[in-house]
Amino acid sequence: MVRPRGVHHLAISTRDIKTQIEFFSDVLGFELVALFWMHGVPGAWHGFMQLHERSYLAFVQHPANAAIEPKIGVTHAGNGASPSAGGTMQHLAFDVADETQLLAMRDRVRSRGIHAFGPIDHGFCKSIYFAGPENLTLEVSSSHEAIDGDSWIDPEVAALAGISPVELARYRRPAVSETSSHPVPQPPLDAPGPRMAYPEALYETMVAMSDEAVLRTASETTPPVAKGARA
User: Fold this and answer.
1) For the residues of 92-146, what is the DSSP string, one character each?
2) Per-residue pLDDT, 231
3) Can you name the residues that pair with 58 across neighbouring β-strands?
4) What tens digit of pLDDT does each residue of 163-173 get?
5) What is the pLDDT of residues 81-129, one digit of tens each?
């Protein structure tokens, strides 16, 4: 079955990438593994911090970010129980193996002068909560087993969300999708699906390009420092 197996990276906008790197390095122990000019975005920096070798937290410092003021309840939720605009990140949760590690993370966070609340037992996981730079709402969680949908899908909430029993069954057991024997072409420009917010003319050009042309024109694979060059 073809489907993603995990989160490769979550990218967060920042006005101060150094502060974010300092926080996640010192408070949570993430390793900085990449920091470079963002490919194809003049003036922007891209940073990657490693959770493990196939999972990263990324930051984007765009020159226009400094002019965008954060507003709790619009751009940020501010805590794990508050609203923010649709499509924004409400909170970000990281995983640890067991409760012993969860308590160790709580103590590490507190030792950096940051208030950490918990653990709170949610039934399928236990979590601690704390704040990060630029109004990030952060969580560290641990589950002792996989979430059981028979117990944790509430029929009342499903109905209020407009999910029928037939749809619920489909969501719980998605259709198997195998690799196509031939590449699937781009949908037409007026296809009904969501689209990224590029300028209209640029978006039309991108949709019209072949996959080979996108690969050829948009790829940048050379690291900023050649292997073996760093002293």
Assistant:
1) EEEE-SSHHHHHHHHHHHHHTT---EEEEE-SS-EEEEEEEGGGEEEEEEE-SS-
2) 64
3) 11, 48
4) 999 999 999 99
5) 999 999 999 999 999 999 999 999 999 999 999 999 999 999 999 999 9
Model pLDDT, residue 6: 87
User: How many Å apart are CA 152 and CA 146, to the nearest integer?
Assistant: 11
Sequence-separated (6 or more) residues with CB below 8 Å from residue 195: 203
Looking at the structure of the chain, the number of domains it has is: 2
pLDDT at 230 over 80: no
Structure tokens at 38: 């963002």
Tokens of 88: 């924004």
For residues 228 and 223, give the distance between their C-alpha atoms in angstroms, rounded to a whole number.
12
Q: What is the mean pLDDT of residues 67-87?
A: 96
| In-domain check, residue 74 | yes
Range of the domain at 101: 70-147
CATH number of the domain enclosing 53: 3.10.180.10
The CA distance from 82 to 88, in Å, is: 12
151 Cβ partners below 8 Å, 6+ apart?
none
Q: Are 131 and 116 in contact (CB under 8 A)?
A: no
pTM: 0.91
Edge to edge, what strands does the sheet with 31-37 contain?
Answer: 9-13, 55-61, 45-52, 31-37
